[in-house]
Amino acid sequence: MNEYYIEHQKILLSVDCIIFGFEDYQLKVLIGHRNMDPGRGAWSLYGGFVRNDESLDEAADRTLFELTGLHHVYMRQVGAFGNVDRDPGARVVSVAYCALINVKDYDRSLLEKHNVQWVNIDELPEMFSDHQEMIAKARKLMQVKMKTQPVGFELLPPLFTLTQLQRLYEAVQGAELDKRNFRKRIKEMGSIEKTRLIDKTGSKRGAYLYRFNEKTYREEKFFRL
Amino acid sequence: MNEYYIEHQKILLSVDCIIFGFEDYQLKVLIGHRNMDPGRGAWSLYGGFVRNDESLDEAADRTLFELTGLHHVYMRQVGAFGNVDRDPGARVVSVAYCALINVKDYDRSLLEKHNVQWVNIDELPEMFSDHQEMIAKARKLMQVKMKTQPVGFELLPPLFTLTQLQRLYEAVQGAELDKRNFRKRIKEMGSIEKTRLIDKTGSKRGAYLYRFNEKTYREEKFFRL
DNA sequence: TCAAAAGTGTTAGATTTACACCCATGA
DNA sequence: TCATGGGTGTAAATCTAACACTTTTGA
């Protein structure tokens, strides 16, 4: 590194993960308790520091893996948060990432190991620093994306009913949707395909199971934000 | 700072400014030549390193001030860019900010002093690192914002004609707009008010001058992204 | 047999788009 | 007088939102 760079101050850089899950028709966030001073014990997102040999995306991926054991998860950058005093222990700038995972894929024993839990997004406790703000921004990002593209299949099992999908959309939007209009739109969007399988756990009559068609999804990529 | 933080690697953090201006019915970006190795001489956004005693927003504001002598400029965060090798001289993570300024407010002598110039966004040269990507993302951000809220008055003089405003929108969108529909929508949005003044520089007949009404703008804030 | 969820189309209203002419003026 | 940009309204098309009944089946 030449002199030009050397004269400048380096800063601790972290990533914070807003991990969304979907359970009991509720949008949930995986949060835990901060395990360092200052602020020990406060509700907090799971985060980690960025290393010199990894990109921001890689740092987010690694952090998520540490917590969940999952790789190749849908993640999007939410934004950088850099107020001087946002972390009372040191100057830390944090880049927030949101991830969507299927609660069923999550190894429950890790909840205890990392002291985290799924909390309904509408019943969040007070949180450390700007973490609430990060979550709010992440949810808004998802809301905007969902309007124009099919997102959120990562929160569901590989096979799902249209009602399950609708409940997911409702949970993210925080509003009820009309069943017929929802089905019309989601089918027009493409990217899901009907199977001949029927799920009978949700009703006596049973509902067709659908799956996400990634190929169609990729092809329509250019329409998206 | 306690031990917990100490064990982690610090990283050089910079801000890069995408400075939009509007001139000759074209959307322009203020870019210059990189004045450090490696990559000296390459086309580059103007940027600066973030200090430990300032927030990201403050760093962006300061950097913009260094270049333009302007404070309190409309700025928005575009996103964080953090590929490991994005800067060949050192590991530098950069947060991109876009700013809107009126080219007329810009002291032309500063162009030479900082070796920067206004370049049409549709005729950008090859640029250093990921700077093209930053510009593209900033433009998209502006496009999205403009659809739902009146943005971009900062690029115009305090009094402007509706045609000037339309040309600005067209430059950002990169597409022509229908005159009648544009006027209808922009008036519905509120936030501009007609004066009794007439501009005769653009036509023989003359066109009414409008001004941005910040009060209305603030009140309608909750409708916005 | 009935409760509970699945599935399916149509219509009114709202929004968006396309489009053409007269006006005022300076050269 | 004519070339130039300023200013204005309407109708068609599209998109969005509201709405109700029949089906299936397990309890």
Describe this protein's structure.
The structure is a homodimer of 225-residue chains. By secondary structure, chain A is α+β, with helices and mostly antiparallel strands. The first copy, chain A, has helices spanning 3-6, 56-68, 109-114, 131-148, 162-173, 179-188, 214-219; strands spanning 10-23, 26-33, 43-44, 46-49, 74-81, 92-100, 116-120, 159-160, 192-199, 207-212. Strand 1 of chain A pairs antiparallel with strand 1 of chain B, so a sheet runs across the interface. Chain B binds a DNA duplex (27 and 27 nucleotides) through helix 6.
SSE pattern of chain A, N- to C-terminal: HEEEEHEEHEHEHHEEH
Give a quick account of the main beta sheet of chain A: strands, pairing sense, barrel closure.
Answer: 7 strands, mixed
**N/C terminus separation of chain A:** 37 Å
Helix/strand/pairing class of chain A, anyone?
A: alpha+beta
Q: Strand percentage of chain A, roughly?
A: 25-35%
Q: Descriptors for this entry?
A:
homodimer; 225 residues; alpha+beta; 7-stranded mixed β-sheet; 3-stranded antiparallel β-sheet; 31% helix; 29% strand; elongated; disordered C terminus; DNA-binding
Short characterization:
2 copies of one chain form a homodimer. With 225 residues, the first copy, chain A, is α+β, with helices and mostly antiparallel strands.
What are the SSEs and their pairings?
The structure is a homodimer of 225-residue chains.
Chain A: H1 3-6, E1 10-23, E2 26-33, E3 43-44, E4 46-49, H2 56-68, E5 74-81, E6 92-100, H3 109-114, E7 116-120, H4 131-148, E8 159-160, H5 162-173, H6 179-188, E9 192-199, E10 207-212, H7 214-219
Parallel strand pairs in A: 1-6
Antiparallel strand pairs in A: 1-2, 1-4, 2-3, 2-7, 5-6, 8-10, 9-10
Chain B binds a DNA duplex (27 and 27 nucleotides) through residues 161-163, 178-181, 183-185, 200, 202-208.
